[in-house]
Amino acid sequence: MQNTRSTKLLTAAVVAAGFALGLAACGGSESDGTSKPAAKPAAGNTQGAALFKQRCSVCHGNTGHGDGMGAAALNPKPRNLTTEPYKFVDIAGSANEVEALTKYITGGHIESGMPPYVDLAVGVAEPQRQTEVKAIAEFVASIRPKPNFVEAPAETPAEAPAEKPAEKPADSGG
Questions:
Q1: Which pTM does this prediction carry?
Q2: Which residues constitute the domain of residue 113?
């Protein structure tokens, strides 16, 4: 019996490698075929926008809506980065949103289908990868509505309120 975590890790690695090869074959860009408006990067973050399109758009789409050409084959589906709250980004353990996103992009999250950045940037040296990840994190933060740093709702159900005992009818004395 195969280990589920190992299977997910292998699947994510194969998907990332396949997407990387597909991007290289088609000139490094992806078209999601939609008429959604392009995501607008924060002023001066053209590097982050370009890297996002090159490395992330296969799953997240050119506009960050989670509708890239590879999204249909993935389960779970890629997050819509423009509207959905972060679900696995460690908000509490980070100083700010960009730092939290940088950690998440760097390490990935195999259970959500997000591969580690090293799998998406094959052949890029470590110092350059760190620069790229920060630029992508800044871009993602810039395309989200404000406030950006929204934590996803807890996945555990809330406790049900205690029920009041039924009131006894008053004795009419009779």
A1: 0.63
A2: 4-143
